[in-house]
């Protein structure tokens, strides 16, 4: 049963990391778009 709990914990951590990486890349993309808009204005 402990093995199952470890697996759940691992997969949860993986999901959180995926979401975090997605947020970071989204923030970078937002920053790039914002600077591009500044250049064009």
From TrEMBL:
What is the recorded name of this protein?
Cell wall channel
